[in-house]
Design a protein that fits this description.
The complex is a heterodimer of chains A (208) and B (421). By secondary structure, chain A is of the alpha/beta class. Chain A is built from 5 helices and 7 strands. In chain A, the strands form 2 sheets. Chain A has a 5-stranded mixed β-sheet. In chain A, strands 4-5 form a two-stranded antiparallel sheet. Chain A is globular. Chain B is α/β, with parallel strands linked by helices and 421 residues long. Chain B folds into 2 domains: 253 residues, Peroxisomal Thiolase, Chain A, domain 1 (3-Layer(aba) Sandwich); 152 residues, Thiolase/Chalcone synthase (Peroxisomal Thiolase, Chain A, domain 1, 3-Layer(aba) Sandwich). In chain B, strands 1, 4, 5, 6, 7, 8, 9, 10, 13, 14 and 15 form an 11-stranded mixed β-sheet that branches. In chain B, strands 2-3 form a two-stranded antiparallel ribbon. Chain B has a two-stranded antiparallel sheet with strand order 11-12. In chain B, strand 9, helix 12 and strand 10 form a beta-alpha-beta unit. Chain B is globular and about 65 Å long. Classes of the chains: A alpha/beta (208), B alpha/beta (421). Chains A and B meet through strand 1 and helix 2 of A and helix 6 and strand 5 of B.
């Protein structure tokens, strides 16, 4: 099964830090990681009543499943999932300032995600960052950790880079490869997809 | 997020496979007749007296028409095919056709306590005895908790949300509760909600035996000669639960979808109460369980006096059953003796993550027919003489509301009130 990173023959001694390279021409599978993350959700009323500072809102979410294949992603339902999240937030795709991608660094997965993004954004794709280039794929923990990255990035007006990047001619994307980039963000789309063909996307909004 | 639609949610069908039968219909018939489905284990060999279990009779996934030899060898986590088949049965029972309209609006939430651990033990055996390259490339998807629901979607064609609510022995109720909220809010029009468990492997049986959770059937026990008597919730000689495999799925639907498609509502999901104990990893906690029951009744906008029957968690453990009775006394007070309390685990055993969904289906079918199912194998415990457990025989008892309790390891509680039609 294609999935986890296996180095090319005679390249076994390459730097481990360069193993996870989402959207890159030479991506070779995800890097398995351990990890955990948690966010605390609350109603606005509760936060205000208890003096809890809040900076972000879960503006919309979407969930779909593929009914297609046990690991291969499916363009149509992945696209639908992103659109559902954006519509649930009552915004349009062009309102999204940054996409925090699922991007596991697999051949097929990254390609399908990019194709789905191009379909949703009609080839006017905002910057896309792939945190798995930095922390690998912590499976069930990954999307919450990456959501926290996205929220922190919104707060600080910055987007973490997608490292280890080598452009892939099949993947037309600005993945913030040059290093962290200052971007003022009001809306971020967070993608997450799983084995079994389950898709879940969230839109976060910075509170004014 | 869009404003919630505030829709009513109905149960329009169900499927099940239990130690009483490999379909809901056969399970129901046996339950109504007062039978229990336990036998000495045949799935594997074990070195413990906790060897009386609930096996699904005549369950051979390789005989399913959509399972060819290749599929059967790749998917070695038993919960996958069991989920696919129970979901197929549930949709057929509901008369819900999955098409371009309904497919994207149908979700599938199948919980489990132990998931694909049976596949992991095969992989470990291969790794140790045959070498690392003999670990199946399908191991990881076999382990994924959401894979059964995903494979059900590939078989049946729905593309709504699929994931796995993990609430240990309450997972089935968590699935029904989450699915109901998602339909109420407008995220789905239909949800296949339930639980599945294929836990009859040596390590798991031994693990439960070593933690003193399951009954050990010695030569002097009444189940030694007759294994069907091993599970006896609320009985004086209860000694632990009987581990069972099983799957249960209810089909939930939004009110207007029931009407538009001409489906038959069997019950309304009237109220949900869920919380956790913050107390102990296995011992139940009275205060929070009472809150969960009150929560479900309050959510249904009724009072405890409106509850006409109780489908207990009732696992047949000495302290678990006592605590549940204490909680029922706290909620229902002097009215408790007048409310029949059925413990389906006396008949189907404890199928962990599947049990609450199976019991919900049984409770709803019973309510629809104006009866209450029995608690079989019953020998009264004087400590519970204020409890009507419907001993040994089903009984006519028309009722409008049934409370279905479920509690799980880790201190997780989920109680649901269903309203009859």
């Amino acid at each position: 099964m294609n999935g986890v990173y296996i180095p090319k023959e005679e390249r076994e001694n390459d730097s481990p830090a360069a193993a996870s390279r989402p959207f890159s021409a030479n991506r070779r599978g995800f890097v398995l990681s351990e990890g955990a993350g948690a966010v605390i959700l609350a109603t606005r009323e509760f936060a205000e009543a208890h003096g809890l500072p809040y900076h972000y809102e879960l503006a919309g979410w979407g969930m779909t499943s593929d009914a297609h294949h046990f690991v291969a992603p499916y363009l149509e339902t992945v696209r639908q999932c992103m659109l559902d999240a954006i519509r649930d937030a009552a915004i349009a795709p062009q309102d999204i300032d940054v996409v925090n991608a699922h991007a596991a660094s697999t051949k097929v997965g990254d390609q399908v995600e990019c194709d789905a993004l191009q379909a949703v954004f009609h080839h006017e794709l905002p910057p896309v960052c792939a945190n798995k280039s930095l922390i690998g794929h912590a499976m069930g923990a990954s999307s919450v950790i990456e959501s926290i990255f996205a929220l922190q990035g919104m707060r600080d007006g910055v987007v973490p880079p997608t490292i280890n990047y080598t452009a892939d001619p099949q993947i037309e994307i600005d993945c913030v490869a040059e290093g962290k980039r200052p971007i003022n963000q009001e809306f971020v789309l967070k993608n997450a997809f799983g084995f079994g063909g389950c898709n879940s996307c969230a839109v976060f909004k910075r509170s004014s | 997020m869009k404003a919630p639609l505030n829709r009513k949610v109905f149960v329009v069908g169900y499927g099940a496979a239990t130690s009483l039968g490999n379909t809901f219909a056969s399970t129901w018939e046996a339950a109504l007749a007062g039978r229990a489905g336990f036998r000495r284990i045949s799935r594997c060999e074990v070195a413990t007296r906790s060897n009386v279990v609930g096996e699904i009779p005549d369950w051979d996934p390789s005989r399913l028409e959509y399972v060819n030899r290749k599929e059967a060898s790749l998917w070695d986590a038993g919960f996958i095919f069991l989920t696919m088949e129970v979901c197929r049965e549930a949709l057929a029972n509901a008369g819900l056709a999955i098409d371009q309209e309904t497919g994207p609006r149908t979700g599938c939430l199948i919980g489990s306590a132990l998931n694909g651990t049976d596949a992991y033990r095969i992989a470990m055996d291969n790794y140790v005895n045959k070498g690392p390259l003999k670990v199946s490339p399908y191991l990881l998807p076999n382990l994924c908790a959401n894979l059964p629901a995903g494979k059900a979607g590939m078989l049946l064609g729905f593309t709504g949300p699929v994931f796995s609510p993990q609430g240990a022995c309450a997972s089935g109720n968590h699935a029904i509760a989450l699915g109901s909220r998602m339909i109420r809010d407008g995220d789905c029009d239909f949800v296949l909600a339930g639980g599945v468990e294929t836990c009859l492997v040596p390590e798991i049986i031994q693990g439960f035996a070593n933690m003193l959770a399951t009954i050990k059937v010695g030569p002097k026990d009444r189940a030694f000669v007759d294994p069907t008597q091993a599970s006896r919730p609320f009985s004086i000689d209860r000694k632990g639960f009987v581990l069972s495999e099983g799957g249960g799925v209810v089909v939930l639907a939004a009110e207007e979808a029931v009407r538009a498609l001409g489906l038959t509502a069997r019950a309304e999901v009237a109220g949900i109460g869920w919380n956790s104990d913050a107390h102990h990893f296995t011992r139940p906690n009275q205060e929070t369980i009472v809150q969960a029951i009150h929560g479900a009744i309050a959510d249904a906008e009724i009072t405890p006096r409106d509850i006409g029957a109780i489908n207990a968690h009732g696992t047949s453990t000495p302290t678990g059953d006592s605590t549940e009775v204490e909680c029922l006394r706290a909620v229902f007070g002097r009215n408790l003796p007048g409310i029949p309390v059925s413990a389906n685990k006396s008949q189907v055993g404890h199928s962990l993550g599947a049990s609450a969904a199976i019991e919900a289906a049984l409770a709803i079918e019973a309510m629809g027919k104006g009866i209450v199912l029995p608690t079989v194998n019953h020998i009264p415990d004087p400590a519970f003489n204020d409890l009507d457990v419907v001993p040994n025989h089903a009984r006519n008892h028309p009722h409008e509301f049934v409370l279905s309790n479920s509690f799980g390891f880790g201190g997780t509680n989920c109680c649901i009130v269903f309203r009859g039609m």
